[in-house]
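Lab notebook, bench 4. The sequencing result for the construct came back, and we need a structural model before the next group meeting so we can plan mutations. Quick request posted to the team channel:

Model the 3D structure of this chain.
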Amino acid sequence: MEKLNDIFDVEVAKTIDAYPSVFSKDDVIQLITRLRTDAVAEALEASRQLAEAERKFFISEMDFQEFSSNVCKALEREINNGGLDVYDYSSVEFSINYHNTIEIENLDFNTDAVTDELSNILLDQFQESFGKLLNPENEE
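Done. Here's the predicted structure in token form:
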């Protein structure tokens, strides 16, 4: 918008600096036409830049589904590899059944460990998937 104002200021300055005389209709029409052309060109450039900026920060549904899938896979992989204790083994309760068999009565779910790991995975996956949108200067 500032550039657009500069265009008008330049044309006004040219008119003021012109030799004092009566301007013809053709001079005024030519001036207005030139201003309109420059103003439209500047507006189109600004619109193009805005559209380009919006495309850079756009997250499609497919991008989000891929992100969600990656989070689920990472959490499942962490649990299956044994890197995450999903059960609180210190609170397990056993009982002895008939025929001297041991039965688990109670085994608590370790929600703190799961939520901590999920938080870490979410941060890592978000940075990997969408970090380039937040820090475009870090693009490779």
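The chain has four helices and two strands.
Will bring this to the meeting.
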